[in-house]
UniProtKB/TrEMBL annotation:
One of the Pfam families matching this protein, by short name: PhzC-PhzF
InterPro entries with a match to the protein in the record: Phenazine_PhzF-like (IPR003719)
GO molecular function: isomerase activity
GO cellular component terms listed in the entry, alphabetical order: cytoplasm
Residues forming the catalytic site: E49
Gene3D superfamilies, alphabetized: Diaminopimelate Epimerase, Chain A, domain 1
Protein name according to UniProt: Isomerase
Length: 265
């Protein structure tokens, strides 16, 4: 059987050290392979996201797959892909543009911080329900809906110590669930859950912060915010509102570099 050999990296995003932040696999392709094959690779990797990228002229096309399916936007895998390209492929460049399902995403290298220009989700406040309380384990004081459901809690401790009912989360509207509160050392603190994508808790969620940063920027009256993802691995995001877009900045660290062997289609 003929094989296709694909170069694959794993990078930890929103951290400057391995075993922290959010790991993503990054596959550098010469040409696109089938959706089925990309989905199988994502299932085999069993990370929250596997990114696939193909160079197109001076830019790159980029897609993201979770073990449960393709997703329209992923911050940490975009950051991980940019980090790999800047450090191993495009060493002399300061900006890279990705063509994605969510439009063009420009990534700027600012020292050891990689700044992503991302779309901000429009949020609509919705009633807090008993089903949300059951899922989160504590009654939220506010609920907002974009692509994902955002539940605002009273304080940082409630977010950190929340006991999530994953089966109850599956029954809620929205693709992911984010619980968030005003932080102590950081402007906001968030945790993210995606059982519909076969990811119980996302270690650091970039697209989630495209929900919570517009919300906290409005609440706190600030254009620049530093955010903490309070997962077990944890991660820090340096954020700025820019009209209807969000600049998400973060560091990254390489964990592995290698090749995967897949059947040639």
């Amino acid at each position: 059987m003929k094989e296709l050999i694909v170069r694959q990296y794993i990078a930890d995003a929103f951290t400057d050290t391995v075993f922290k932040g959010n790991p993503a696999a990054i596959c550098l392709l010469q040409n696109w392979i089938s959706d089925e094959m990309m989905q199988n690779i994502a299932k085999e990797n069993r990370l929250s996201e596997t990114a696939f990228t193909v160079k197109k002229d001076q830019d790159y096309e980029l897609r993201w797959f979770t073990p449960g399916g393709e997703i329209d936007l992923c911050g940490h895998a975009t950051l991980g892909t940019a980090y790999i390209l800047f450090n191993f492929i495009e060493k002399d460049r300061e900006d890279i543009v990705f063509h994605t399902m969510s439009g063009n995403l420009t990534i700027h290298r600012n020292g050891d911080i990689y700044e992503m220009d991302m779309p901000a989700y429009e949020l609509k406040e919705i009633p807090v329900t008993d089903e949300m309380e059951k899922a989160v384990g504590i009654r939220p004081k506010e609920a907002w809906m974009g692509r994902d459901l955002v539940c605002v809690l009273d304080n940082e401790e409630d977010v950190v110590h929340a006991k999530i009912d994953q089966e109850a989360v599956l029954k809620l509207d929205g693709l992911l669930l984010h619980i968030t509160a005003k932080g102590k050392s950081y402007d906001c603190v968030t945790r993210s859950f995606a059982p519909k994508l076969l990811v119980d808790e996302d270690p650091v969620c970039g697209s989630g912060h495209c929900h919570v940063i517009p919300l906290w920027a409005e609440k706190l009256g600030k254009g620049k915010l530093t955010a903490w993802q309070a997962s077990e691995r944890s991660g820090v995001l340096y954020c700025q509102m820019k009209g209807k877009r969000v600049i998400l900045g973060g560091k990254a660290a390489i964990y592995s570099e290698g090749y995967i062997h897949i059947p040639e289609e």
